[in-house]
Amino acid sequence: MKVGIVGLSQVGKTTIFSLLTGLEVDLFSQEHQKGTAKVHDKRVDVLAKMYEPKKVTYATLEFFDTPALKIKDIKERTAVFNAIQNVEAMLIVVRAFKNDSVPYPEVEKPIDQLKATLDEFLFRDLDVVTNRIGRLENAKRKLEPKEETELKLLKRIQEALENEQLLSKIGLTDEEKKMLGGFSLTTLKPIGVVVNVDEEQFSEKSYQTKDEVIKLCQDNGFAYVELCGKLEMELNALSEEEKMEFLKELGTDETGIERLSRALYTQFGLISFFTVGKDEVRAWTLRKGATAVDAAGVIHSDLARGFIRAEVIKYDDLVRLGSEKAVKDAGLMKLVGRDYIVEDGDIITIRFNV
Ligand SMILES: Nc1nc2c(ncn2[C@@H]2O[C@H](COP(=O)(O)OP(=O)(O)OP(=O)(O)O)[C@@H](O)[C@H]2O)c(=O)[nH]1
Ligand SMILES: [Mg+2]
């Protein structure tokens, strides 16, 4: 899944992009950057220990860094959103960290930054929708029935946006969403929020307007994660052992970045299934509700085309019983057909014939 990283100026967007993707970036460059981030999943580590494969592959998310949004600056907004039209989800970065040597964004309180960023999302969608309405209304011909339906829907959406409602919250049907698919509407996409705190805020688990930020995220179904960009950068520079030691002192076994990628993955409606063996242990990504034949297709189109059935064992059963054989002997391996709905943590072997 492709995720756009957006926010006001100097909040830590590029820092978080760099931490997520492991790419070295020039903080002063205005280039758009994209990169791939590993989605932390302890289950993959456990499976890798068990199978000792040649290769271990984690699920990934693809991130796109963007230049800062400036409040009510149409030109900047258009540039930012045009550059990430293809993303399927948004990650908003909000700055809580205090540091007078880093210029503050236009509004300082985290809740105000979040609201201002969401306003830009709403304005963007309103721009797109209003343009399209104008084009339909000014068409010098009679509209086709399909266009009439679209126009009616767009007007309803326009009104919602004018009332500052996120489109993900107005109960659009799947058919309506499909009709809007080509417009890449920002507020229809899943949203995650990351608050960049400083060390003091991190250890006190508190920052200005935190309650309001959390409430807004909960009310709208946004993923919410706090992390300290500076601390994460320091962690990054350590060896694996030093890192684990440091994290233990902090009372956790996961970095903020690992927590972030996992939280987004879940909140964006993604699940993982696994394939295992001596060659490779791998996590693959599916949308919740996808079927066994979808899973086959993710691995290779031949596997979907020639799909016969799939063998499924549950990760928890495998770990509890210690081997595939033990799981089979306990009668816990399932043979499933193409319409089986894959569950997070399924270990799948596809039987196929092409
Ligand atoms: N103290 C502190 N500084 C940070 C933290 N995160 C980022 N910075 C610094 O803040 C400055 C801005 O960070 P960037 O990651 O470039 O922020 P940005 O949102 O990409 O900035 P623009 O793209 O210019 O809008 C840099 O000097 C970072 O080193 C943090 O958690 N704590
Ligand atoms: Mg930047």
Question: How are the elements arranged and paired?
Answer:
Layout: E1 2-6, H1 13-21, E2 33-38, H2 42-51, E3 55-57, E4 60-65, H3 74-83, E5 89-95, H4 110-137, H5 145-162, H6 174-179, E6 191-196, H7 199-204, H8 210-220, E7 223-227, H9 229-236, H10 240-249, H11 256-267, E8 270-275, E9 280-287, H12 292-299, H13 301-305, E10 307-314, H14 315-321, H15 324-329, E11 334-336, E12 346-352
Parallel strand pairs: 1-4, 1-5, 3-9, 5-6, 6-7
Antiparallel strand pairs: 2-4, 8-9, 10-11, 10-12
Helix pairs in contact: 4-5
The structure holds guanosine-5'-triphosphate and magnesium ion.
Magnesium ion (MG) is lined by residues 13-14.
Structural commentary:
It holds the Pfam family MMR_HSR1. Its cofactor is Mg(2+). Keywords: ATP-binding, Metal-binding, Nucleotide-binding. The longest helix is centred in the middle third of the chain and has 28 residues. The chain starts with a strand and ends with a strand. With 354 residues, it is an alpha/beta fold. The chain is built from 15 helices and 12 strands. The strands form 3 sheets. The protein has a 6-stranded mixed beta sheet, with helices on both faces. The protein has a 3-stranded mixed beta sheet with strand order 3-9-8, sandwiched between helices. The chain is 44% helix and 20% strand. The chain has 2 domains: 195 residues, Rossmann fold; 64 residues, Ubiquitin-like (UB roll) (Roll), CATH 3.10.20. Bound molecules: guanosine-5'-triphosphate and magnesium ion. Magnesium ion binds next to helix 1.
